[in-house]
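Notes on consecutive records. When two proteins share a document, each keeps its own sequence and its own token line. Never mix them. Below: protein one.
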Amino acid sequence: MLKEFFYDWPLLKQIRDRKDGTGPEAMSERTRSLAPKTEGAQVARSICPYCGVGCGQLIFHKDGKLISIEGDPESPISGAGYARRAQTALSCSLIQQG
């Protein structure tokens, strides 16, 4: 059991296989099993209300809870970005919701 643990340990895999540690050999089983937090969430398009710029945003929600708010890459105004005021306000709203 201990031998198997060390055999699958990413650091030792890198040394054993003479890899540089930037590819799949650097990943643990847990890392490989991770999924994006927005996976399975519904998406609503909206416009940011914080200033007059009108940045486009994508609102990800699941089971009535806010998951993430991101810039809309298809927005002709913001192109996936946000004005400074919106970045701060959105960060605070996600932190408060928990």
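Protein two starts on the next line and is unrelated to protein one.
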Amino acid sequence: MSTEPITPEVELTLAETLPQADASSLVDRELLETQVQEMYRQVPREEEADLYGVESISLAAVRGT
């Protein structure tokens, strides 16, 4: 086992070989888009919005973050 640090380039290459999951079948895209649009409408009106609620979690799942 090597004790030398892995460069970012090598790390990215290794990451590309990992299996990728597709969660698109788990997300209702139309509902998510509607919720995100409403959230962005609330911001200019300075309404309180639950920015860290279920919508944010769903958005994170779609974005892969």
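For the record: The mean pLDDT is 78.
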